[in-house]
Design brief:
By secondary structure, the chain is of the alpha/beta class. It is built from four helices and eleven strands; from the N terminus they run H-E-E-E-E-E-H-E-E-E-E-E-E-H-H. The strands form two sheets. Strands 1, 5, 6, 7, 8, 9, 10 and 11 form an eight-stranded mixed sheet that branches. The chain has a three-stranded mixed sheet with strand order 3-2-4, with no helix packed on it.
Length: 256
């Protein structure tokens, strides 16, 4: 939809999402994904803790997605899939697919990422700490995965496999979130989506508690690679792997 000098203001992209969502609900268009870059903006999901907002009073846009507060802006590739999900609606499985597409895209450029128990998004794990003692109070119960998207949900056992790193209960250095995910599903069709940090000014995250997570940091592809890596570089990779992963979804029933 626009990157670089063509970056799309948040409100403009939100209006386009709503327009496409209505068309997809009516089966007037196929599944569609908006890929873009925003001018700087903070957005907050429905479960944002007021204590996580900017201390300097910087304006924040309230949105109707899951998740908490985050930042969008130059150097970050944002994706808004407008996708009709098959019955029965499984939001968790859909979020897993978004994560999988980004994990594959990162792997294609040599950045090893994973999921973390109890936390949505795509992560770079901190290094293991020798002689670390696990803090039981920090261990996430995989049977109660909340994803910060609503009330705790039971997790499908098939999703609790080795692709999840254990929650960091003091056994690793700081984990770093490379991509954030926050979605909404209305009338069976998705909105909002993901944000992948390519080469943003990371100081934007210093004003907030990103995604409400206080015991982990944020990362960028350029930082992990130790070289320039732009949104334009990431765009074809993310488009390729997102198309592959979403194509694996079963076909939804027409007219639902």
């Amino acid at each position: 939809m626009g990157i670089g000098e063509g970056a799309v203001p948040y409100q403009e992209a939100w209006e386009e999402q709503q327009r496409l969502h209505a068309l997809r609900v009516a089966d007037e268009i196929p599944d569609t994904v908006l890929l873009l870059e925003h001018p700087p903006v903070y957005t907050m999901g429905k479960r944002t803790n007021p204590a996580d907002l900017p201390l300097d009073g910087t304006p924040v846009v309230e949105v109707n997605r899951g998740g908490e507060i985050t930042w969008h802006g130059p150097g970050q590739l944002v994706g808004y899939p407008i996708v009709k999900l098959p019955d029965p609606i499984d939001v968790i499985a859909y979020v897993r697919r978004l994560e999988e597409s980004l994990i594959r895209a990162c792997a294609a450029i040599g950045v090893d990422t994973t999921r973390v128990e109890g936390r949505s998004g795509v992560w770079v794990l901190g290094d293991s700490l020798p002689d670390a003692v696990v803090d039981p109070s920090q261990v996430v119960d995989i049977g109660k995965l909340s994803l910060r998207m609503g009330l705790p949900l039971g997790i499908d056992p098939r999703l609790a496999g080795p692709e999840y790193a254990p929650s960091n209960a003091g056994q690793r250095g700081g984990d770093r979130k490379l991509a954030a995910i926050g979605v909404r599903v209305a009338r069976g069709v998705t909105m909002h989506g993901f944000a992948l940090n390519c080469d943003p000014d990371m100081t934007w995250f210093d004003r907030i508690v990103p995604c409400g997570i206080r015991d982990a940091g944020v990362a960028s592809l350029a930082g992990e690679l130790g070289r320039d890596f732009t949104v334009a570089d990431a765009l074809p990779l993310v488009e390729k792997h997102l198309a592959e992963v979403l194509a694996e979804l079963p076909e939804p029933a027409l007219g639902r």
